[in-house]
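Entry 12.
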Amino acid sequence: MLAGKPAGVRCVQLDEENRCRIFGDPRRPAVCSSLQPSAEMCGVTTEQAMIYLTRLERLTAA
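Predicted 3D structure (tokens):
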């Protein structure tokens, strides 16, 4: 997404399994590369991870 991704909008680079299509690619945004997964972020389930990431997006929205 050339102008960035608004909070709450699914990244266009995610595939059907929510994996980044441009992981390791120099075009990958710096914010994505700097985001380090943790047990707190990932939780135990996909639902827990999405709750965390949604909250993070809300807290960092401009």
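Annotation: The chain has a mean pLDDT of 87. The chain has three helices and no strands.
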